[in-house]
UniProtKB/TrEMBL annotation:
Residues 104-246 form the DinB-like domain. This is DinB family protein. Gene3D superfamilies: dinb family like domain.
């Protein structure tokens, strides 16, 4: 099945079997699982050389990832913190810590933007393995800021800048897409709007108080699940660091070519 793109498990299940699927002596080399739920998956006596797992939710809650009986999540978290100085502060819980966390994030992105600017023309628009290009990643972070700062925290009625890049879930959940651009903006336009949104977060953090961090907000996608200002800010920081990791990964690939 080399090169197969798996979109679901329907083709592999018997009618009425919605709980368990077994692959025995199956050749899944090169298979790709995208937006798939593999929680609780068990693999026994498998060849996993060159396998890659990328899950931004790996370190949330009580989730574990066992490899030969060892939970590797603490090692993954520590290594990512080593590779990306400042990432460890993303869960800061007080105003001063949040300001320091955002400053570290800005430094990280600043270096990556300089790196992208020094690459051959067009590199920022290259997609690696069907993922967002560097420019699209920046556009998505514009949207993330609009969702979690402008909409959830500030309560702006129409918070979205039209160059924002919606994620797949937003596109498929019946949301109004008319607010977003139907044409691709120039990279200079993307940089300008991105810098503006980064400045908005910085400005908000400069004046945020302990009391305001505890203020209850409406979840932008699911109002029945309340958030706080602090949890919204943590989501922004998580989005920023995860997409920075993706961007660095793909720039490495582009340079390697």
């Amino acid at each position: 099945m080399a090169g197969v793109r798996l979109r679901g498990m329907g083709d592999f299940m018997q009618a009425g079997d919605s709980q368990r699927v077994e692959f025995v002596d199956a050749d899944l080399r090169g298979a790709r699982f995208v937006r798939a739920d593999l929680s609780g998956m068990v693999m026994r006596s498998v060849q996993v050389g060159g396998a890659e797992i990328d899950s931004p939710w790996l370190l949330e809650g009580d989730d574990v990832l066992l490899v030969n009986g060892v939970d590797v999540t603490p090692f993954v978290d520590a290594e990512l913190n080593r590779r990306f100085p400042g990432r460890a502060e993303r869960r800061a819980a007080d105003p001063e810590g949040l300001r320091a966390a955002w400053a570290a994030l800005e430094r990280a992105w600043g270096g990556t933007l300089e790196r992208a600017a020094g690459m051959p023309a067009g590199s920022v628009d290259v997609s690696v393995d069907g993922e967002w290009s560097f420019a699209q990643t920046l556009r998505h972070l514009v949207m993330a800021t609009d969702v979690w700062l402008r909409r959830a925290i500030l309560g702006v009625e129409q918070p979205f800048h039209p160059i924002g890049q919606p994620n797949a879930e937003y596109e498929t959940d019946g949301n109004d897409m008319s607010v977003f651009a139907t044409v691709t903006p120039s990279y200079d336009e993307v940089l300008a709007v991105r810098a503006e949104r980064v400045g908005m977060v910085r400005e908000f953090l400069e004046g945020v108080t302990v009391e305001e961090l505890a203020t209850v907000r409406s979840h932008p996608w699911a109002p029945e699940y309340p958030e706080t200002t602090l949890s919204c800010l943590h989501t922004i920081l998580e989005e920023e660091w995860e997409h920075h990791r993706y961007a660095v990964r793909d720039l490495d690939t582009i340079e390697g070519r």
